[in-house]
Amino acid sequence: MNRTRSVLILVLIIAVGGAAIYVLQQSLAPRISAEQRLIESRRLLDMLPVGSYDNQPLDHPLTLKAPSLANSTLLEGYLASVAGKTSAVILRSQTLGYVGTIELLIVIDAKGKLLGVKTLRQSETPGLGGKIAAQPNGWLQGFFGKSRNDPPDSGWALKKDQGQFDQMAGATVTSRAVINAIHDALRYFDEHQAQWIESTP
């Protein structure tokens, strides 16, 4: 009898505990979701200059048509705006490096100039191509202010390939992949600029 009562009490405790955990999870879910969204916002928006947008860009995703480009794939995009006018486009791009995929965040202003590039994910060789993930990243900063035609198409390559850009030391394949992905994104922006800049999120 005592054993049966003990088992019943244990089952009751487990049931009450499970119910309490469920209620707690449900009550915290909106807060957790909001915190996750805030973290994602910071990660994706930290390259936008202060005062360059007054909307919530993540609430204004772009429809990306034919996102598979010559050297990369666009995964998603967002519009940043001020007073209803597009101020920047945020593109998440994926390309193939030396070891595996490299995911980049590429921010372009309304005139087609590169505001920033950073690495979101990568699996390149530590100390070589893996340096692409360093923050701040002097090599990536060398692209800021560039556009599709500045330099011209032929200049979007490493100096060793008759282009205009230095490579990261010991990371030729990684460097080529990133340069090509940035140029892809700038070309894609150029092709859709009129449509995106007329958008009023």
Question: Which stretches are poorly predicted, pLDDT < 50 over at least 5 residues?
Answer: none
Structural domain tally: 2
The major sheet is characterized as: 4 strands, antiparallel
Which structural class is indicated by helix and strand composition? alpha+beta
Strand content of the residues, in percent?
Answer: 15-25%
Compute the gyration radius: what is it? Answer: 23 Å
Give the strand order of the largest sheet, numbering strands 1, 2, ... along the chain.
1-2-3-4
Succession of helices and strands: HEEEEHH
Bulk shape: elongated
Helices and strands in order:
Layout: H1 2-45, E1 72-82, E2 85-96, E3 101-109, E4 114-121, H2 138-141, H3 172-198
Antiparallel strand pairs: 1-2, 2-3, 3-4
In short:
By secondary structure, the protein is an alpha+beta fold. Helix content is 37%, strand content 20%. The longest helix is centred in the first third of the chain and has 44 residues.
Give a written overview of the molecule.
The protein is of the alpha+beta class and 201 residues long. The chain has two domains: 1-45; 57-198. The chain has three helices and four strands. The chain has helices at 2-45, 138-141, 172-198; strands at 72-82, 85-96, 101-109, 114-121. The model has no long low-confidence stretch (mean pLDDT 87).
